[in-house]
Amino acid sequence: MASSAVESTIDIAFWFLNRASAEDSYLQPHKLQRLLYLAQGYYAQEHYGRKLMPATFVVHDLGPIEPNVFRLFEEGRPSIVFVAPPPEVEDFLERIWRRFNGHAVDRLNAMILEQPAYKTAVLAGEGEEIPFAAMQETFKIKEKEKAETTVRTADGRTVEKWIPTRAVRWRPQ
């Protein structure tokens, strides 16, 4: 088995950029970095520690970045050949896109910057590598916590907690 699901982190970056383009939206460079980080962590959690891409994330004042993608995309989208990921990886990336694309960069940063893997690496200073094993453990804990609080119906559907809001009373005119 290969050490990662795809050969290049650049292909995953291009997948996210192409997905944003298909929706006629612009994907900010910082948001691209957050999506790459989240994709790597969630893929490892779902696939028993296997890397999605051969990426190394480091501490940066903007949050975690993959320095090669950061540098390559500094001046905009480079003109290189895009290799589409295998269908099972595309399905996974589509789930990540649907789950996190609607969030602002600040919200994604808030989620990531509080994770133990990032917080530990920050203590060593900017440019410090965020160990993949620490990322994997962080996402494993996060999903375990989520699973413990998830309530399901007899047929397997997820039940969401209903919180009533202030009732608007109907008044005849």
Task: Give the N-to-C terminal Cα separation.
Answer: 71 Å
| Helical stretch tally | 7
Strand order of the largest sheet: 1-2
Computed over alpha carbons, the radius of gyration is 19 Å
Oligomerization category of the chains in this entry: single chain
Order of SSEs: HHEHHHHEHEE
Kindly report the average pLDDT value: 87
| Total beta strands | 4
The proportion of strand residues reads: under 5%
Question: Which percent range fits the helix content?
Answer: 40-55%
Classification by helices and strands: mainly alpha
Q: How does the overall form come out from the CA principal axes?
A: globular
Biggest beta sheet summary: 2 strands, antiparallel
Low-confidence stretches: none
Give me some keywords for this one.
single chain; 173 residues; mainly alpha; two-stranded antiparallel sheet; 51% helix; 5% strand
Layout of helices and strands:
Blueprint: H1 9-22, H2 29-46, E1 57-58, H3 67-72, H4 87-100, H5 105-113, H6 116-124, E2 129-130, H7 132-149, E3 151-152, E4 158-159
Antiparallel strand pairs: 1-2, 3-4
